[in-house]
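queue> pop job 88
queue> type: inverse folding (structure -> sequence)
queue> payload:
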């Protein structure tokens, strides 16, 4: 009897072990199936987003080839019965924060100081003045003075910034002005270059404050608005045409204009664009996105950068 009991116990142990193994194996294959299906779905959505990008790219080529203007827009594209949200945002006529330099080198002093002047003016126009910037940067009237010994002397007079000042400390102090403002204002942007780019044919009334700041307040709001509204129906044929309008419609000193447009860090164009497009496709609780950075110059379109991302919606 004792031997039968032991044998029965062994059989039960074997059955229990087999049950555990079957459960583990089942969970493993369920997880493998889930991961395989997820990877398959991710790949499908990735190809859908790339197809949408190609569709949009071809549409951009047609628009530019027909001498039409690119504009900010939102639309939907349907591919394989799936709805793809598309958003196109211009990132040209904005203050590129990557123009801000922290170097104390005296080389190209005015080019390094100029973006700080523009930033200071933008904050003042937006009624968000920074005491930190006011203490660090002199008034922009200094820019137009001509009695400097040399540009190598300018940096010490323009930017009163201590050698031991850390970039992180500065950014933290500056963002205290209004972090929400910096994150949401259309005036600010970030590109993979260190230029301030103004496309004169993309200027709208919403760019008035930016242009005022770019010209360091030598143009008032009324002047800027008048210039923007005077844009020909087919746009300015050249940057020269744009500046001729400024000289004809305002009392600005031509020498002041030349000092600004001759800066290496600032670029005016009538046919150069930066656009950031976002393509998004959603499946229940997951959103797949593709962000593409397009650069347009002389009707030639170049894809500068492309980034995929996956986000999850909260389950309610």
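queue> result:
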């Amino acid at each position: 009897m004792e031997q039968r009991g032991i044998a029965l116990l062994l059989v039960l142990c074997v059955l229990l072990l087999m049950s555990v193994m079957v459960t583990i194996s089942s969970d493993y294959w369920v997880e493998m199936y889930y991961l395989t299906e997820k990877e398959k779905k991710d790949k499908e959505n990735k190809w859908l987003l790339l197809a949408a990008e190609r569709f949009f790219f071809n549409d951009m080529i047609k628009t530019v080839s027909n001498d039409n203007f690119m504009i900010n827009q939102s639309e939907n594209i349907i591919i394989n019965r799936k709805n793809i949200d598309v958003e196109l945002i211009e990132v040209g006529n904005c203050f590129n924060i990557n123009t801000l330099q922290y170097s104390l080198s005296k080389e190209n002093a005015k080019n390094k100081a100029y973006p700080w002047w523009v930033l200071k003016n933008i904050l003042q126009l937006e009624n968000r003045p920074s005491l930190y910037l006011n203490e660090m940067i002199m008034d922009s009237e200094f820019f137009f003075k001509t009695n400097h010994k040399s540009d190598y002397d300018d940096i010490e007079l323009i930017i009163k910034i201590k050698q031991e000042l850390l970039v992180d400390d500065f950014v933290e102090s500056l963002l205290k002005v209004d972090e929400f403002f910096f994150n949401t204002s259309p005036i600010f942007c970030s590109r993979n270059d260190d230029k301030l780019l103004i496309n004169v044919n993309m200027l709208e009334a919403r760019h008035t404050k930016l242009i005022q700041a770019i010209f360091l307040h030598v143009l008032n709001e009324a002047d800027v608005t008048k210039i923007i509204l005077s844009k020909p129906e087919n746009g300015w044929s050249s940057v020269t045409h744009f500046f001729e309008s400024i000289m004809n419609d305002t009392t600005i000193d031509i020498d002041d204009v030349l000092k600004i447009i001759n800066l290496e860090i600032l670029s005016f164009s009538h046919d150069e664009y930066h656009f950031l497009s976002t393509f998004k496709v959603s499946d229940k609780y997951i959103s797949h996105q593709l962000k593409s950075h397009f650069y347009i110059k002389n009707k030639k379109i170049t894809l500068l950068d492309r980034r995929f991302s996956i986000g999850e919606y909260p389950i309610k």
